[in-house]
Amino acid sequence: MTLIELFATSPNILNELAAEFVRRGDVCFRASKTAQESACFMLALRCSSLLLGAGHLMKPSTRDSFDVLMRSFLEARDLLINFRISHKGTLDKIDYWFAGKMNNSWKPDHKKCEEFLRKIGTGEPELARRWSMVTALSHPTFYAASNSALLMATKVSGRSEFEDTAQLMEPKIADYLVSISTLIVSGTYDLPGWVPLACDPTRLPNVDPFHSSVLKIAIPYLDKTRSASLPKGSFRE
Known about the structure:
Blueprint: H1 3-8, H2 10-31, H3 36-55, H4 63-84, H5 88-99, H6 110-119, H7 127-138, H8 142-157, H9 165-188, H10 207-225
Helix pairs in contact: 2-3, 2-9, 3-4, 3-9, 4-7, 4-9, 9-10
């Protein structure tokens, strides 16, 4: 299977995930509207919604907008990881989040999340670094404005008709597929130290094969293209 073929299956995967998140979320919400599990499913559904939207921006003319939407996804996904940690501090943060006041309760504790992920053997997660890089491309920084200017100039001049779509979009597609894969892990896996969400694997028949394909196809592609990242000093390491 190619990267493009795998991308073509992503809407079905997201629909499968969303259906299970809605089903389980409804059960948890009926039991307690402010429980840890309810907060997790609300964030999992936000992640699903943002990824569905980002999938429609997977073309050269909207790759700029894709970066902005993916920052919102990363924030929701990282907060989901944060909220799944079984710890008194997590419950306090969730109570604060449910209060819905103007504060930074939506901001994930990257340090705590990364410590947890390292402890369970996932390698170096780099959540904060990844968030910082995406932020540099979604705020009106020099690099973000340069991307927008180039995109618009190419479109206005008509040169966009001759762009190599595959070359431009394959890194974005690989990143998108890996993002879906991280939602699968953070939303459906019940890892040690996480509050169990008890998603039913029989209702997610295509999710694990998709995740395995991402590991084989998309992640190696990203590893080869990492040198094209932002220059050192342009984001917080």
